[in-house]
Amino acid sequence: MKLLKSAIVALTLALSLGSFSTAVVACEDGRTCFGPEQAIDITLGHIAEAMKIINDGDDGVKAQKAIKKAMDSQKEINANDLVSRFRQKANKNLRKARKLAKKGNVVEATEWLIKGEKAFEGLKSKL
């Protein structure tokens, strides 16, 4: 009886642990669902959105939120150490642009966004 009870517990435990895929769980929080090229394209899209907001004459608050989205999406770019190093350098441009947009200096923020856009486009060649 003890042997049967242990076997049933072990079988139930094995079935419960193997009943879900780890790949599905990995995408649950929204991270690691994209390849590096897709993540770069998403980041570039957010940068373009921020520049469009600034060019439309909106204040720095809306642009700051769009830049924050770009900064959040760039965290998904994970290919290798070289790409990671250049990603961090490109992210510095976004941080400076966000800081300037927060202060309301959208002209300089646009310049830093352009630099950041070029840096993120250059990441594609590093993949």
What does this structure look like?
- The chain has 127 residues and is mainly α.
- It has one domain: Four Helix Bundle (Hemerythrin (Met), subunit A), CATH 1.20.120.
- It contains six helices and no strands.
- The mean pLDDT is 85.
Descriptive labels:
single chain, 127 residues, mainly alpha, Four Helix Bundle (Hemerythrin (Met), subunit A)
| Number of self-contained structural domains | 1
In the CATH classification, which architecture applies? Up-down Bundle
CATH fold node name: Four Helix Bundle (Hemerythrin (Met), subunit A)
List the uncertain runs.
none
What value does the Rg take, in angstroms? 22 Å
Taking the alpha carbons of the first and last residues, their distance comes to 59 Å
Question: Any idea what the CATH superfamily is called?
Answer: IL-4 antagonist (De novo design) like domain
Shape: elongated
Count of DSSP helices?
6
Query: For the record, what CATH class applies?
Result: Mainly Alpha
Topology order in helix (H) and strand (E) letters = HHHHHH
Mean pLDDT level: 85
**Which structural category do the helix and sheet elements fall into?**
mainly alpha
How would you sum up the major sheet? none
In short:
With 127 residues, this protein is mostly helical. The protein is 78% helix and 0% strand. It has a single domain, classed as IL-4 antagonist (De novo design) like domain (Four Helix Bundle (Hemerythrin (Met), subunit A), Up-down Bundle).
Question: What's the topology here?
Answer:
Elements lengths: L1 H16 L4 H5 L9 H20 L4 H14 L7 H23 L2 H21 L1
Helix pairs in contact: 3-4, 3-6, 4-5, 5-6
